[in-house]
Protein: HhH-GPD family protein
Organism: Melioribacter roseus
Amino acid sequence: MIEHFGVPERNKRKPAPVDLLIATILSQNTNDNNSYEAYQNLKRKYSDWNQLVKAPLKEIEKTIKKAGLTNQKAGAIKNLVVNLSRDNRLDMKFIKKMDNKEALEYLTSFKGIGIKTASCVLLFSLYRNVCPVDTHVHRTLNRIGIVNEKSPEKTFLRINENLPEGIAHSLHTNLIKLGRGICRPTNPDCTVCPISDLCAYPEKKHSKSSKTKEKRLFIAR
Ligand code: SF4
């Protein structure tokens, strides 16, 4: 996948855990453009997250309207900042001292924060070797045959049991690229798949002629 998609770039600056949590809550069940716009609106309205503590829920809902599920997402965001601000811990520096298990347990104890959101904080903000599992990562890992699990939560536990050091960011990011562009939920395009030879999916389609494959590999990049 690295040969095909390249090594994914990382942000020059690590995002603060609370920023990433809020952004990931907003990204649930919507596309990147909508969640980005909702996050920017929120940042513009409340330049300091402490201001969210006293903000009326309806006002937060209106501000993040673009992200959808506003009631649920505004509630989760408000609950998070209210709890963190109580102990003056909005910077979440304390989480850096926790090991992965402790940090995941702590983060998922908040309403509206599941294992996927929590593991994104570990990978993208703390640079831990943890591979979050969304629907694309779950589908591709199971089709390839690396795991055999029914739910993303179980796939997450399985894949992270013995993940080789230093691969989580590249694995996660490239599996999402694979799942969005090639190994789609229906009609996976196995003829252009860079890991077709390794894949154990029983419904895998066989390669077309090498010339067609080369052309389509180029298009898929
Ligand atoms: S060969 Fe097909 S099923 Fe297997 S990972 Fe590639 S696109 Fe998905």
